[in-house]
Design a protein that fits this description.
This protein has a domain of about 70 residues: Nucleotidyltransferase, domain 5 (2-Layer Sandwich), CATH 3.30.420.270. Helices cover about 30% and strands about 10% of the residues. The protein is built from three helices and four strands; from the N terminus they run H-E-E-H-E-H-E. The longest helix is centred in the N-terminal third of the chain and has 17 residues.
Length: about 140
């Protein structure tokens, strides 16, 4: 008569499939992360300036390109130009819910000065108390 050998249950977890899944997800995120960056290609002027202190709120950034089109980083279709009235409505609605949100203007260095003044006048009409200007640091 043969005796049966009792098998003990294996108490170790096989982590190889989990590592495979993790590596696949890592590759997916590495490939898609650069695609998530949105924005308008604006050639900012270079000027010596100090960086602003960090703020916990994401700032409103209004860009103006060399054709005089306005872009805002809030709302849908951030890479599409908005009309001045739409810009005015969006900024005033943002200030209504977040009154101390910082507002910055970024303009292409080839934008006529009058277009920048028009943008700043629109922001003033929307109720923006102060506007910051975005520049690139000068090359050394």
């Amino acid at each position: 008569m043969r005796q049966r050998v009792k098998k003990r249950p294996m108490s170790e977890i096989n982590v190889v499939p989990y590592i495979d899944v993790m590596l696949v997800l890592l590759i997916i995120f590495m490939v898609t992360a650069p695609l998530l960056t949105q924005g308008v290609n604006v050639d900012l002027p270079q000027a010596p300036s100090a960086p602003l202190p960090p703020n916990e709120k994401e700032p409103v950034i209004v860009n103006i390109d060399k054709e005089g089109n306005f872009f805002i980083n809030y709302g849908e279709n951030q890479d599409k130009p908005v009309l001045p009235d739409t810009l005015l409505n969006r900024v005033s609605a943002l200030l209504k819910y977040q009154p101390d949100i910082p507002v910055f203007v970024g303009g292409d260095k080839q934008v006529p000065y009058g277009d920048v003044i028009e943008l700043m006048t629109l922001l003033q009409r929307a109720g923006v108390p102060s506007v910051g200007m975005i520049t690139d640091p000068p090359e050394k």
